[in-house]
Amino acid sequence: SQMRKSRTQKRTVVRDAQGKHVHLERLDDTPDALQPDALQQHLHRLLQRYCEEEEEEGGRRAKKEENLADWYSQVITKAEMIEYYDVSGCYVLRPWSYSIWEAIKEFFDKEIRKLGVENCYFPMFVSQAALEKEKSHIADFAPEVAWVTRSGKTELAEPIAVRPTSETVMYPAYAKWVQSHRDLPIKLNQWCNVVRWEFKHPQPFLRTREFLWQEGHTAFATKEEAAEEVLQILDLYARVYEELMAIPVVKGRKTEKEKFAGGDYTTTVEAFISASGRAIQGATSHHLGQNFSKMFEIVFEDPKKPGEKQLAFQNSWGITTRTIGVLTMVHGDNMGLVLPPRVACLQVVIIPCGITAALPEQEKDALLALCSTYLSRLLDAGVRVKTDLRENYSPGWKFNHWELKGVPVRLEVGPKDMQQKHCVAVRRDSGEKVKIPEAEVEKKLVTMLEDIQNSLFKKASDDLQSHMVAADTMEQFQKDLDQGRIVQIPFCGGIECEDWIKKTTAKDQDLEPGAPSMGAKSLCIPFSPLKTLQPGQMCVSGKEPAQHYTLFGRSY
């Protein structure tokens, strides 16, 4: 009797120990008949699944504003974005999340080709000698490097590292390819995976031992060319976040403490998660100067000084699958994922409603034919759309399912809608229901999808602006920080001072369940600060003159 309370309708038939047929309300796909010894196990699975659903319906699903870590874990699993794996810190990216990465990849790849960047692929293995050639560079990665030390039962004569990043993999080849200034610039990019064997608490997409990314590596004859490209790439990263994912970012330059090890300077885009009051690094574009070209002897003959060798100027830049986690946390709500239309692999789902046993077969056929017509028309209009015609699930179950997965628009088509020659579009971002005349479906939905994209960006932008403030004293800085804000403060830029700020602002309790307590770190020196330094203004520590207003905050 309990099983009949479940939300699903379709029955399955199993045989009991005496061979009699037993009807059960079906919660998942099962064989038409089970052997007696499997019946008990099958019943246990059904009851467990039923209890899980009842628990969720009873209000025990984690709420974003109360327990962000649990909410995040539930959303990415129930929305079918990831599957857990038996190696800690590694996860299966299911099609629903991987399609977001494909949308990012398609956009970014098209844009960097306009800049003359070509794709390539280098091996994932790097020798110990090459990896350790640039000491300051590898020092930051050393604790996270994974090493291959054995083949079968045979110990390798020299351990081989799995790439944590590819500077030391690619630059020996650059040294071979560059002889003359005519061989420059080199503009290469690769889409690949990297491994960083972190021991911190792993979180899917946000902190994983293996992740997907693109890494661009370029070499130029002049510093000016390299510096120009650094900002061109940073602008593209900002567009990925703002135009595709509807997430506002703060563009700026990293402090000396936070810059890429071995580089001259690092630029970054920083996003903000208001539910936790924490920032997250979105993507980085580094100017490496001549540090790596000196180590790897990437030199060319200076055309202005015949016979003299000149070191190349280099950049590296990357964006990762962390983007998917940021998107989930920024836009998701207590009903699940919320996908911006431009990265949603499915923008509209058509759901027929009101199909009951009492509905004449002729009307049912006409209703399904109308759904098919809407499907064809929307596909022709360039909308990513599908119909959900599964008979073993009720319309209510389908509504919940597609809301959880974040599909931007649900199109409901029922017998009354068909008679009145309209359909009902339901927006995922606001829940608003809009009646659309049958003849205007394509036009209205294309406009609605664009409006959803813009509305999500405006909501997130308002959120960022209300949580990013400026403070001139340590007392005000601490107060703003504890209220979940990110704060621009006058800062001297010193590494020791930054360490002091982090220690001083550390909290004793967790910021959220499952997250470590932490002090504030520098996020970036914003290109567009909220305030301008006054002559003689001191660092917030009161010890040294301030150099810039610098954005600080607790961070992932």
Automatic annotation (TrEMBL):
<dbReference type="GO" id="GO:0005524">
    <property type="term" value="F:ATP binding"/>
</dbReference>
<dbReference type="InterPro" id="IPR002314">
    <property type="entry name" value="aa-tRNA-synt_IIb"/>
</dbReference>
<dbReference type="GO" id="GO:0006433">
    <property type="term" value="P:prolyl-tRNA aminoacylation"/>
</dbReference>
<dbReference type="Pfam" id="PF09180">
    <property type="entry name" value="ProRS-C_1"/>
</dbReference>
<feature type="domain" description="Aminoacyl-transfer RNA synthetases class-II family profile">
    <location>
        <begin position="89"/>
        <end position="340"/>
    </location>
</feature>
<dbReference type="InterPro" id="IPR036621">
    <property type="entry name" value="Anticodon-bd_dom_sf"/>
</dbReference>
<dbReference type="Pfam" id="PF00587">
    <property type="entry name" value="tRNA-synt_2b"/>
</dbReference>
<dbReference type="InterPro" id="IPR045864">
    <property type="entry name" value="aa-tRNA-synth_II/BPL/LPL"/>
</dbReference>
<dbReference type="InterPro" id="IPR004154">
    <property type="entry name" value="Anticodon-bd"/>
</dbReference>
<keyword id="KW-0067">ATP-binding</keyword>
<keyword id="KW-0030">Aminoacyl-tRNA synthetase</keyword>
<dbReference type="InterPro" id="IPR016061">
    <property type="entry name" value="Pro-tRNA_ligase_II_C"/>
</dbReference>
<dbReference type="InterPro" id="IPR017449">
    <property type="entry name" value="Pro-tRNA_synth_II"/>
</dbReference>
<dbReference type="InterPro" id="IPR004499">
    <property type="entry name" value="Pro-tRNA-ligase_IIa_arc-type"/>
</dbReference>
<keyword id="KW-0648">Protein biosynthesis</keyword>
<dbReference type="GO" id="GO:0017101">
    <property type="term" value="C:aminoacyl-tRNA synthetase multienzyme complex"/>
</dbReference>
<dbReference type="Pfam" id="PF03129">
    <property type="entry name" value="HGTP_anticodon"/>
</dbReference>
<dbReference type="InterPro" id="IPR006195">
    <property type="entry name" value="aa-tRNA-synth_II"/>
</dbReference>
<keyword id="KW-0436">Ligase</keyword>
<dbReference type="InterPro" id="IPR033721">
    <property type="entry name" value="ProRS_core_arch_euk"/>
</dbReference>
<keyword id="KW-0547">Nucleotide-binding</keyword>
<dbReference type="GO" id="GO:0004827">
    <property type="term" value="F:proline-tRNA ligase activity"/>
</dbReference>
<dbReference type="InterPro" id="IPR002316">
    <property type="entry name" value="Pro-tRNA-ligase_IIa"/>
</dbReference>
<dbReference type="GO" id="GO:0005737">
    <property type="term" value="C:cytoplasm"/>
</dbReference>
<protein>
    <recommendedName>
        <fullName>proline--tRNA ligase</fullName>
        <ecNumber>6.1.1.15</ecNumber>
    </recommendedName>
</protein>
